[in-house]
Specification:
homohexamer
């Protein structure tokens, strides 16, 4: 069955404000398709602009303590805890590509505790899932443990900010019932010839 | 005991980018003080700009189906479900002022189900708290119930987007351990002379 | 909206047994108003007498290991865990007055883990909330930890007995839907001239 | 292994205040043994007196809408939800005797939903367990449903008050680790010759 | 009230395949009655055969690290966590008989944490209940702790396999609403003359 | 990283009893590889034989009310609720193949409530997940609802028995930490040429 992109109106692309339309065109050109979350948010241009600005500030970033792949896995683990299909599938695709590992997204989504990751990432995912599901239970000691694994102050902030941003994103996706684009399901699973 | 504004660095105001500094000055002039969340976010100007843009798009808005007071009460109810002191106290203050009711914020924070609100707002808060705490359990029927209470498509989106935005805000506040400013605790509780 | 004092009958004061009426008169004279829980319980004089006797045995008591303010904060933390508006607001007022701190009740009610209290009180509130919400998980080691913080056998008993008594009180308040008196909301928030 | 009666001091019977000692003697004469909860509470005579007064006001009572057996089954169901061995075993014994049914206490303790009881008692136990485990979720409609099953205002209050009283009793028993007397385990299980 | 043996058809014994009928006859001769789970499963002979084969492989076994009584107590603790009356009552009977202790089954069913067992069995029951209720939370360290208490590799496997088998058995009993036979309730409670 | 097949010993194939070894050879020939659960169970031949017998009795079956694809989706939904990677990945593969749908397994694993399935399957998955996660909450009315969607008595039993069997299987997989074979991840995702 084909599922609609959103429970709310999706305006035609050419009616969007110029900056948003140009952004969407650029994403579509790069990816080959426009991820549904862009289309679903586009009826609210101010929110969409803020949403993508915050996303990029947190996710388009590679540091010694927290690689792009690590950031995607934080999204996968916490979005799975929130049962968010869009984010698990779309960011699972990014995680597979960034980590060059066809299995890691499924492993982290279903059971991050047994996923074949190093101790640093186990510590990151443990506190990330805690912040996602029981935020008041996060303590100063939890943040210290991340610093002991070599994360800088910026990295530690990013862990919390990524979890927080996807707490928003997961809920908007549930609220509007945004399905993942079909393309995401297979990305990063098949070795390139 | 005095508590720090954040677990992360808080830069001096005059080192901020111009647009952010001007925004902070304006808020401070209007309110008489700068809410701690501004100071705590200011070491990340891009995230701060996006955060406040999204906040204002959702909260500085009055519609027939969802008043400013109603929006603040959604924040209070869901932030209480997330045990977020900053948001309960700061938005509790706004809720008291917007609703011109010195008790409503405490009533909604502790036990929204018995709060003296109309059926529309009970329906709004029920689904808002569900989206905050168990997002996958929200169904299309939940959104329909809001429409039956007179909310427009825009209002229904706003309910979900406000809950989602404060899912982010609550978690950032927990992560950085941002305390509410002392001024918020009493605002709207004492009748003006 | 005005809310009734109880879902059950509230008899006129002058029909009460003498000892109960005298007690109520004394409380009203001291406080300036009669807390609603007195009126709500008065249709059951035997239960009311037992209720207030147990309350006073546990709460009108100041020891080196557990002050009156500490006792009120145990009530606030566990009543918040039970979403009991009456107890959070009425005992929040007492906590503010006893602790001479206008913020501590809100801090403890919403997020006791980050409240600016000493290690002893953090240990007390941790086990108090555990007993309130998951009583079988309390172990002998939990009680030992309180002793290590200087609580006597009597103090340790009191922690458990206060939590237990308000497990009763919170549930009766929910069952009868007893609202806090308007006076409680502001008590202890405004510095006396 | 023999388990102590309490984690707290248990004073010798002849050092108790006269009224308490007489009460204990009478109970022991009637039952053939002194239930451990009496001994465990006796180091706090004021609390003990209030405790037993409230207990008797709620439990020594037979009405058309709520028999003594029904009251004991409320205790069994909610004490099982709180994992309280003392109350499940001691009040399970009373329930078997009052209901003249050797199986009903185990059936209600482990799975009240499938216990062979009438619709009225299923409604009573459903709301009783809700009040015990998630008190804010109890609504006015829950109380109305009990009225529709023929419970009077007094009976409805009693349901809530019994649950509330045993919320206290279960937690005290956990806190002091009071074991049930050996006698209770078999009472009401074997048909009298 | 008499309760049916199952929500599904129960075929007459003499219509069963020979091997199943012989097995049932043997059990009935040994126990004096046919446990209801046999009758309830008999309409599905292949599943019944596999069910009893797996049961016996795990339960009819006595090792230095895990006696028959220990195995029955694992069943009692985890079946109680799953609110399964059939298994709590039937295996509670076996546990009383195997352990020659008339109280241990009730103690473990209601509050295994305070049950008078040695440290080894406390460690076993803690991880058993975790596997029953939150299986992803079991870690390699949990299994190591059992080895440190002297369990062999075979014993450790058996702990997990018994919990797993009764996760199945508890759910089938709920699904078919299988009541325990009346005989089980009293078995092992009364000292033999 | 390569993960071992089990936390417990895995015997060489040629040391297995004949019937088990022949079964394994047949599975390997049909699938092209031996699923790890076979190898992990093989050190316990009696349990393994019973396990596969029960599996096949429930899963190798196609009825008008419950197709093979439907049965696999029950496994996927409940195994995801139990965070069992092995079962989600292995039976997700079967579900994709049986349903000839490359997306359905991920949709059901992450958020079965929004999966594009008919009302019958939504009813099946709702009660299946309830039996998996809160078995005492399943009522006779839940089974009736399945009958109203056209399931026969045999189909209704199968729903419960499949959930029950995988409650066992999920826990054994967690206990032994059995990883899915690499082959399963991609099966049924790529259209055959």
């Amino acid at each position: 069955m084909t599922q609609p992109i959103s429970r709310f109106p999706v305006p035609p692309r050419d009616g969007l404000p110029d900056d948003l339309r140009e952004r969407f065109d650029a994403v579509e050109e790069r990816s080959g398709f426009l991820p549904n979350v862009f289309a679903a948010l586009s009826w609210r241009p101010a929110e969409a602009a803020a949403f993508f600005a915050m996303h990029d500030a947190l996710m388009d970033k590679e540091t010694a303590g927290l690689s792009k792949a690590d950031r995607e896995l934080i999204v996968v683990a916490t979005s799975a805890a929130n049962d968010c299909l869009y984010c698990v599938v779309a960011h699972g695709a990014s995680a597979r590509i960034r980590a060059r590992d066809p299995h890691i997204a499924d492993q982290v989504a279903v059971d991050w505790r047994k996923a074949p990751l190093d101790e640093r990432m186990h510590a990151v995912l443990e506190v990330a899932v805690r912040l996602a599901t029981d935020p008041a239970a996060v303590t100063a000691a939890d943040l210290d443990r991340l610093r002991q694994h070599g994360l800088t102050e910026d990295d530690v902030w990013d862990v919390g900010a990524i979890v927080s941003f996807f707490a928003l994103s997961n809920r908007l996706s549930h609220w509007a019932a945004i399905p993942p684009n079909a393309e995401f399901f297979l990305m990063g699973r098949v070795p390139r010839a």
